[in-house]
Design goal:
This protein has 2 domains: about 120 residues, Immunoglobulin-like; about 260 residues, Aminopeptidase. The protein starts with 6 loop residues before the first strand and ends in a 9-residue tail after the last helix. It has 8 helices and 18 strands. The chain is α/β, with parallel strands linked by helices. It binds zinc ion (ZN). Zinc ion binds next to loops.
């Protein structure tokens, strides 16, 4: 057995992986690793880098894929298509993965670099960090104002971006968007990136620019930078911390900002962008739970109709889900419920965009996520500016 030269560790930014073993097998390196739960009960996100591969392929063995959120079954696991970046190249998705049976039950997953390399970074999906946001803001210069609305638990600036084509018209329809309440759910920020670009690309008189846009790209910024998955994290999940007495400083700062947003604005919408279980292959809207107020459920249905019209590639029945899964904290303490109860019946919905290729590979790259964002922005604008049916008289 030759002495291992390959070194593997969590990536410097948003890194996550515990490396269990490095060895050489049939001329290629094998790196066994697990996704770290870190500060929470769940695990899924991984992002690791290897140096010293010496011009060989690297095979990654994700040993706890069976324990991760939404990849527990062999079928769901088989949908995973992680991304790799070889040497100085760009990120790309691996084309295939292999699901292996474990001797005493369960499965794990392997994938191999598409070519030999000297160094490689591998992640569950395209990472999106503060530098990616900076690049987009630079590209859309002049449209988005950036302001720190508070500090994170670890003292980082919590940023909100804002765009209004005509600043002299207060009270126009507005959308408030947040992403990364669960810090590892990168598809949410790729979708937001598409919204930021779509708004910037339109002329001031067009539909998107008639709306006022507010967005917090990284709610759990600390977790996003540090590489935590963040779903059901301790002491409380960010999206269960929206009590009247908020349980996270970030949530408290955004609640205050949302009150400024809502003031004097009759038509409002809140979008909360997430990534779902790891094996899912679609984009969908999470409806209010069955026991939520009827008016809230009806408002969500009308928004879904607008989203369906923008995403005809996916059958409508796959575009909406009424959640029934178990929750570790009070389900009413999420953003959507808080927006309805605490912000004078403002509709807030969660949008889940898969980490994996969506709709049989129809959408799988970063620009595809941005395209989904553009369409969501259009759906939001249509919903906010549509003519409402007059109320029936008794
Ligand atoms: Zn989430």
């Amino acid at each position: 057995m030759p002495k291992a030269q390959l070194k593997a560790r969590p990536a410097a930014v948003s890194g996550n992986a515990a490396v269990l073993d490095i060895r050489r097998e049939r001329g290629e390196w094998v790196v066994e690793f697990m996704s770290e739960p870190r500060n929470g009960t769940e695990r899924l996100w991984f992002n690791l880098e290897c140096t010293g591969a010496g011009g060989r392929r690297v095979r990654f063995a994700w040993m706890n894929a069976h324990l991760c959120l939404g990849t527990g079954s062999a079928e769901a696991m088989a949908n995973a298509r992680p991304v790799v970046r070889l040497d100085a190249g760009d990120w790309r998705r691996v084309k295939k993965v292999q699901v292996h049976e474990r001797p005493l039950g369960g499965h794990f997953l392997t994938f191999t670099t598409p070519a030999p390399c000297r160094r490689v970074q591998a992640a569950f999906c395209y990472p999106y960090g503060p530098d990616d946001l900076k690049a987009t803001l630079k590209k859309t210069r002049g449209i988005w104002d950036v302001e720190a609305i508070g500090l994170t638990g670890k003292g980082r600036e919590l940023l909100r971006v804002h765009a209004a084509a005509d600043k002299k018209r207060p009270g126009r329809p507005g959308v408030y968007i947040v992403a990364r309440q669960h810090s590892g759910e990168v598809p949410g920020t790729w979708v937001l990136d598409g919204i930021l670009r779509a708004v910037a690309a339109e002329e001031p008189a067009r539909r998107l620019r008639r709306i006022e846009w507010w967005a917090v790209p990284f709610v759990d910024l600390d977790g996003a930078v540090e590489g935590n998955y963040g779903k059901d994290c301790f002491p409380i999940d960010f999206n269960r911390a929206w009590a009247d007495m908020p349980m996270r400083p970030e949530v408290g700062a955004i609640q205050e900002d949302l009150r400024y947003f809502a003031e004097g604005r009759r038509r409002r919408l809140v979008l909360d962008l997430h990534g779902p279980g790891g094996g899912e292959t679609r984009v969908y809207m999470m409806h209010p739970r069955k026991n939520a107020p009827k008016a809230q459920r009806e408002a969500a249905k009308s928004l879904q109709e607008c989203i369906c019209a923008q995403i005809p590639e996916q059958p409508p029945e796959r575009l909406g889900v009424v959640p029934e899964y178990g929750i570790r904290w009070n389900w009413r303490h999420n953003l959507s419920s808080w927006a309805w109860d605490g912000l004078n019946k403002t509709l807030g919905v969660t949008i889940e965009t898969a980490y994996q290729p969506i709709g049989d590979g129809l959408w799988s790259d970063r620009d595809d996520y941005r395209e989904i964002g553009r369409r969501l922005a259009n759906a939001a604008a249509v919903w906010l500016t549509r003519r409402r049916k007059p109320k029936a008289r008794p």
